[in-house]
Amino acid sequence: MAVKILIITGDAAESLEVLYPYQRLREEGYDVHIAAPTRKKLRFVVHDFEHGFDTYTEKPGYTWPADLAFSEVDPGQYAAVVIPGGRAPEYLRNDPELRKILKSFFDTDKPIAQICHGPLLTAAVDGLRGRRVTAYPALELDMQAAGATFQDAEAVVDGTLVSSRAWPDHSRWMREFLTVLRAKAPAT
């Protein structure tokens, strides 16, 4: 039986930040499940960087089915969790079921990959205090308020927590996460 990895997300998540780790982890031989507030077809977005804009732009992205609702997740069945960014973390951090799930990953020191706005979720469970992280650069003050040391880098590894700024850093983020994951929960 393949080792299970959980991706937690919702509507308005960044398409690439969900689908790149989903495909990459499956390619490694992991059984990947996507959880959201409810089982439904999720609507992702595409964030892009355009000349002349002070921040990213947002366009409609892919749709993808959620395999599980947060209320159906047994964190003990999963070796690691991936937390994509986009706008989804802004509202997901208010979900008590999701906060219980994330806390269990921190409590058991399982690998956690977070990217872009994903660290808003780990901050909501006080998982960043005393840790080194990166995130979308506009979240630097949020990361500091959560007690973390912010580093503007493609990927930052602090124990089993691997964070990244945004989708342009995917290859470095997944390389670092897979190094942690292979050590803690090899696919085979």
TrEMBL record:
Q: Which InterPro entries match?
A: C56_PfpI-like, Class_I_gatase-like, DJ-1/PfpI
Check the record and name the Gene3D superfamilies matching this protein: 3.40.50.880
Which Pfam family, any one, appears in the UniProt record? DJ-1_PfpI
Domain DJ-1/PfpI, by residue range, is 4-178
Family named by the database record: Belongs to the peptidase C56 family.
Specify the protein name.
Answer: DJ-1/PfpI family protein
